[in-house]
């Protein structure tokens, strides 16, 4: 088992491994390059197996962290149990701290969750009354559907609607989101669902597609459009498209109760994933980093 920085991996072998063995989006180089400050991979043999590690490096210390829009790493390829056990030992030895999320069905005791809908032609039968009512409301409104992404209009919409509503939507997160859209928009792996009223873009969502999975990345709508059911209407169209193509629809997930409730209004089911945390960094390093993070928040 060796650790390779992202600029040292064999891109062809890596892309083949991700395409053939990867289930989720978070091992894709285009995704990682957009969101991670640094990233590398632990490799087994000649790319028989691998796992992604996003990390930061300051003052001589490296620590695993959770980038914006990054849910979890996954076991890529072939790993036996002894190799997995060794991985955890090596990871903790190589990185002084960690907040490391992992898709791992062997652990089902985690509070980390996201939501999915399986491809079933009867999917709408799982919608609750609120979802059905809001979709019907949108269908009877002046909203018009568009699928052609006009980046400037969409970025303006999402910036104006989200900047003042969530502390997580800071300039760094905005930059990462913009890079994600740019990295995927020219490859055929990005789907856009937009709502227009009176010639104005009033709502839109971005969905990424790969293999048999489609994942909701981000979206928003003007307040008046939300009241008209725009977000339910757009999400319903995205779910329908996924089901028709026999794909899992992945909401990206959230433990935030309001977001989770919105997802489960469509009958989405919770999926658990694993979180590991550790720290062997000296006190002075943690103190310096905490002061630095606090100062960055104040400046924002």
Automatic annotation (TrEMBL):
Entries under SUPFAM superfamilies matching the protein: Acyl-CoA N-acyltransferases (Nat)
Annotated Pfam families: Acetyltransf_6 (PF13480)
Gene3D superfamilies: 3.40.630.30
Superkingdom of this protein's organism: Bacteria
Domain BioF2-like acetyltransferase: 167-253
Protein name as catalogued: BioF2-like acetyltransferase domain-containing protein
Annotated organism of origin: Wandonia haliotis
Species lineage: Bacteria, Pseudomonadati, Bacteroidota, Flavobacteriia, Flavobacteriales
């Amino acid at each position: 088992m060796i650790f390779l920085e992202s600029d040292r991996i064999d891109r062809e072998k890596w892309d083949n491994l991700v395409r053939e063995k990867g289930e989720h989006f978070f091992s894709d180089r285009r995704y990682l390059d957009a969101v991670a400050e640094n990233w590398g991979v632990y490799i087994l043999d000649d790319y028989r197996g691998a796992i992604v590690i996003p990390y930061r490096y300051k003052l001589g210390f490296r620590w695993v962290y959770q980038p914006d829009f990054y849910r979890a790493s996954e076991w890529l390829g072939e790993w036996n149990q002894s190799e997995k056990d060794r991985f955890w030992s090596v990871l903790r030895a190589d990185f002084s701290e960690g907040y490391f999320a992992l898709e791992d069905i062997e652990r089902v005791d985690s509070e980390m969750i996201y939501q999915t809908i399986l491809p079933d032609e009867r999917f709408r039968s799982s919608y609750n009354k609120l979802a059905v009512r809001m979709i019907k409301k949108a269908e009877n409104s002046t909203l018009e559907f568009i699928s052609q992404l006009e980046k400037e209009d969409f970025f303006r919409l999402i910036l104006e609607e989200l900047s003042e509503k969530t502390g997580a939507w800071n300039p760094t997160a905005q930059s990462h989101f913009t890079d994600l859209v740019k990295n995927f928009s020219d490859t055929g792996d990005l789907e856009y669902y937009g709502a227009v009223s009176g010639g104005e873009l009033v709502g839109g969502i971005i969905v990424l597609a790969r293999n048999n999975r489609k994942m909701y990345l981000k979206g928003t709508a003007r307040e008046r459009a939300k009241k008209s059911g725009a977000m339910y209407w757009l999400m319903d169209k995205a779910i329908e498209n996924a089901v028709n193509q026999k794909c899992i629809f992945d909401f990206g997930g959230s433990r935030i109760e309001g977001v989770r409730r919105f997802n489960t209004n469509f009958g989405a089911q919770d999926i658990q994933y694993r979180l590991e945390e550790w720290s062997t960094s000296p006190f002075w390093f943690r103190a310096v980093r905490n002061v630095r993070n606090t100062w960055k928040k104040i400046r924002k």
